[in-house]
């Protein structure tokens, strides 16, 4: 199973998301081809109701502790309630270009 699949599976089972998008953005960074080290995660869940952003992120860090201790180097989190997601027109922000490593040269 891939790292991306593991992330999707764990978040699906723990947060029962209304919407989940896990994007492998490793290709945008200075890593070997086919790496699974940098991810953008968009989660819309009722579990986030009445929770601040920090608490939402902590929930995800707890679920993905093994991945964060191992293969995952970076995790961009975008966490929303159903109302917040609707207010955003079901859109998460684009990830910025990588400026680290050889990408900055």
The total of helices stands at 4
CATH superfamily: BolA-like
List the domain count as a whole number: 1
Major β-sheet, in short?
3 strands, mixed
Strand order of the largest sheet: 1-2-3
Q: Pairing-aware structural class of the strands and helices?
A: alpha+beta
How would you sum up this structure, described in words?
The chain has one domain (3-91): GMP Synthetase, Chain A, domain 3 (2-Layer Sandwich), CATH 3.30.300. It is built from 4 helices and 3 strands; from the N terminus they run H-E-E-H-H-E-H. It has helices spanning 3-15, 53-63, 65-69, 82-87, and strands spanning 19-24, 38-44, 74-80. The chain has a 3-stranded mixed sheet. The chain is globular and about 40 Å long.
SSE order and pairing:
Layout: H1 3-15, E1 19-24, E2 38-44, H2 53-63, H3 65-69, E3 74-80, H4 82-87
Parallel strand pairs: 2-3
Antiparallel strand pairs: 1-2
Describe the structure concisely.
This protein has 105 residues and is an alpha+beta fold.
């Amino acid at each position: 199973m891939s790292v991306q699949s593991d992330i999707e599976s764990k978040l699906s089972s723990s947060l029962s998301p209304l919407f989940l998008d896990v994007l492998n953005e490793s290709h945008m960074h200075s890593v070997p081809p086919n790496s699974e080290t940098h991810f953008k995660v968009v989660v819309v869940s009722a579990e986030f109701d009445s929770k601040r952003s920090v608490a939402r992120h902590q929930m995800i860090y707890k679920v993905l502790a093994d991945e964060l201790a191992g293969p995952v180097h970076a995790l961009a989190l975008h966490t929303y309630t159903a109302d917040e997601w609707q207010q955003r027109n079901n859109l998460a922000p684009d990830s910025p270009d990588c400026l680290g490593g050889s990408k900055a040269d």
